[in-house]
Backbone:
């Protein structure tokens, strides 16, 4: 069964996004294992838990930012795309044909950008929490980090998930194909 070149390009872009999320999840998991192994051989930390408190506060800020910043980036990109798109249609009506992949690749780029920003905020919070655990040994830190890791894993892209997101964005922007 042979795929059209445009479909192959789309599949490659989706596979790249899957690798990115897989690598981010794998990195956090690897560091969590290292943190647990190293921490188990360290003496109990005494004193204030300032790093843990800072990590939890930063994690909360990252959680809020991960809900706002990626949507803002996507909205700005979609707005730019909607301004560029009429010019492309005029060019195509003047004799140049725009391929399917051109429009779809624009949408995939927007999705990938917002996904990476969202994932980076979650990953950063998880790493900071695991570092706090490594330094201070407060068990709450890896528990909260596990929540961020689970949220990061939910970002794993599938074709269906991406197509649904694109359709939602097109409907929200009153997009005309």
Residues:
């Amino acid at each position: 069964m042979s795929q059209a070149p445009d479909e192959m390009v789309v599949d490659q872009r989706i596979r790249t996004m899957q690798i990115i999320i897989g690598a981010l999840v794998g990195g956090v998991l690897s560091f969590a294992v290292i943190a647990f192994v190293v921490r188990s051989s360290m003496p109990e930390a005494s004193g204030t838990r300032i790093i843990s408190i800072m990590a939890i506060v930063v994690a909360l800020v990252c959680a809020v930012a991960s809900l706002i910043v990626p949507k803002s980036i996507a909205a700005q990109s979609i707005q730019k795309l909607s301004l560029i798109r009429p010019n492309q249609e005029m060019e195509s009506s003047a004799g140049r044909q725009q391929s399917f992949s051109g429009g779809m690749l624009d949408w995939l780029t927007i999705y990938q950008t917002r996904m990476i920003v969202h994932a980076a905020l979650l990953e950063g919070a998880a790493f900071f929490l695991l570092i706090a655990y490594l330094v201070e040994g407060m068990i709450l830190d890896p528990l909260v980090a596990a929540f961020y890791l689970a949220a990061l894993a939910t970002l794993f892209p599938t074709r269906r998930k991406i197509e649904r997101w694109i359709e939602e964005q097109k409907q929200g922007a009153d997009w005309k194909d």
